[in-house]
Amino acid sequence: MRITDIKDFFYFCFQRTLKTCWILFRLMIPISIIIRIIQEFNVLPSISKILDPIMYICGLPSETSLVWITAMIVNLYGGILSLFAIYPSLSSPLSHAQLTVLLTMLLIAHTFPIELKIAQKAGVRLLFMFLFRFTCAIVFGAILSLIYNTFHLLQEPVHLSQVFILQDNTWSGWIINELKNYAIIIGVIFSLVVLMRLLELSKALNWINKMLHPLLKWLGISSDVLPISLIGLTLGVAYGGGLMIEESKQKKIKPKDIFYSLVLMGLFHSIFEDTLLMIGIGGHYSGIIIFRFIMAFIITFIIVRLTRNMNDSTFNRLFITKNYIKRINN
Fold first, then answer.
1. pLDDT of residue 164
2. Sign of torsion, CA 147 305 118 53?
3. I need a surface site. Which of 12, 44, 127, 229 has the fewest CB within 10 A?
4. Which long-range contacts (CB under 8 A, 24 or more apart) does 316-319 make?
5. What is the pLDDT of residues 27-40, one digit of tens each?
């Protein structure tokens, strides 16, 4: 390969990374500041009381509603810190089953201000994605709790022995931590863009598409969004959604393909980081991985079957943003 080709390759990847990061950071930075202000005024405990009845349906103590609302509004790490904060005040320790149910619900519905906004920017209506992931988290939690209790599985109490070291909670400490996170995001996205470009140039994507085509055809997800869907599943909605926004600008992806991909990503994403985090805390793989994987694919399959023959105009009106329709029609 000539030096000129190498320069062109990295110039392309660098340019694509900047575009993707610009899209993400315009959404993430203002939202992060708003969330920080909300945390400063300590309003989350009051908001969390609304979810108390839902926690009962899922077999969880009402106090754990604070954990879930924090994860939804802040992120998984905020939810985990809330869990450790309230745990000593619980009347009795959570069972292994209850902890797994709670952590599975967190994995389905978390970091909504950022992830839902990214999904909206990618083309799917924000209200639908909110209701979809919120409802699925409850359904997943209720069914998983029923399974564990019916078969008397994982009923032993959990004693959380891990110690979470709180970082500097001042504004200056928060700013430094945010800058570190953004630097990591830039590095990860650049690596992903390089990987995707290499797969593209080596024709490896064609081979991957061919191998996964039967599964994709069964599920209803187009090979056009396969690479980005895989990134979302393995690394998260922020990465997959951000790349999908940029990809949809380069070529016209059908609204249904965008929708089905983001539906699957919404239920089962960030397989490595988030999953390992939850198992490390004490969640059981039967719920964190196996149950979540099976349910995510079943629900996606059902949604595809219910909507694939739907009239395009009706489908777009219900699920797709007007901006995306304008974008692909231009």
1. 46
2. negative
3. 127
4. 316/255, 318/125, 318/128, 319/124, 319/125, 319/128, 319/255, 319/259
5. 778 877 877 787 77
Residue 40, sorted as left (phi over 0), alpha (psi -120 to 50) or beta, turns out to be alpha
* Dihedral sign for Cα atoms in the order 26, 30, 33, 39: negative
What is the pTM for the complete model shown?
Answer: 0.82
Q: Three-class SS of residue 124?
A: strand
Three-state SS annotation for 27-79? HHHHHHHHHHHHHHCCCHHHHHHHHHHHHHHCCCCHHHHHHHHHHHHCCHHHH
Joined together, the tokens standing for residue 30 give 């203002």
What Å distances lie between residue 329 and 63, 113, 319, 323, 324, CA to CA? 49, 28, 17, 10, 9
Lookup: tokens for 192: 């992903």
- CA Rg, the chain, in Å? 21
Q: Is 314 left (phi over 0), alpha (psi -120 to 50) or beta?
A: alpha
No. of helices (H) and no. of strands (E), the chain: 18, 0
